[in-house]
């Protein structure tokens, strides 16, 4: 099984995934961003883009990497990764379904003011990359994302509380 933690940048996916993993027996964290980083290291580079998710191989390799790891280890993969483009989520989830891999899709959510505050507090200089995704996240949440997932509102939760909610939702 895959426990996918979605949500915008700065909402706490990476922190929460590290706290969820010990609560789910026989689980591992697989950060799909590492697949994107591998593609970004190709030289000469792939066609220019502002987001590696726009490269079709990223979506295919996320599915294939998850499948191969699960074939090798079994258990559960906890995957923290923002996916805000509905078509991309459909490609990934359909690919996993094709291989018979069940996915529990969670969206970590916080209101825009809280997100902005967390992003600005995270580093001495606020991340323009993370701030740029606040509106696309809000649009995805309004139009499709919250309908496709179990929403965990982290506005007033600690990462540990969010992790316990997710683990309880998957029966752990």
* Computed Rg: 16 Å
Helix content: 40-55%
How many helices? The count is 8
Determine the N-to-C terminus distance. 13 Å
Assembly state of the chains shown: single chain
What does this structure look like?
49% of the residues lie in helices and 14% in strands. The protein has 172 residues and is an alpha/beta fold. The chain has a five-stranded parallel beta sheet with strand order 2-3-1-4-5, with helices on both faces. The longest helix is centred in the middle third of the chain and has 18 residues, at 56-73. The model has no long low-confidence stretch (mean pLDDT 95).
Describe what is shown at a glance:
The chain has 172 residues and is α/β, with parallel strands linked by helices.
Topology:
Elements: E1 2-6, H1 13-20, E2 27-29, H2 33-40, H3 56-73, E3 76-80, H4 86-98, E4 103-109, H5 112-122, H6 128-132, H7 134-143, E5 150-153, H8 159-169
Parallel strand pairs: 1-3, 1-4, 2-3, 4-5
Helix pairs in contact: 1-8, 3-4
List keywords for this structure.
172 residues; globular; single chain; alpha/beta; five-stranded parallel beta sheet
